[in-house]
Amino acid sequence: MVKRRKIAVVTGGAGFLGSHLCDRFILDGLKVICVDNLITGSQENVKHLLKNKDSEGNLLGACESYWPAWCL
User: Fold this and answer.
1) pTM of the predicted model as reported, rounded to 2 decimal places
2) Confidence of residue 20 (pLDDT cuts 50, 70, 90)
3) DSSP-based three-state secondary structure for 30
4) 13 within domain boundaries
5) 31 within domain boundaries
6) 37 phi and psi, to 5 degrees?
């Protein structure tokens, strides 16, 4: 039987709490998908995660889609 890895989707993952959740889930062996519009979060909080093979993120896509004036 094939064992599947669990996936955690963290909305607000670039914020203080969300970035720590991402770190913890990766340590626990989960694949992490971080989604954040960067209105209150910071890309600095998750830039180390972008290099990790167990994480992927959409940090600017939501911002560009919904709040283009705030992303300038």
Assistant:
1) 0.70
2) very high
3) coil
4) yes
5) yes
6) -95, 0
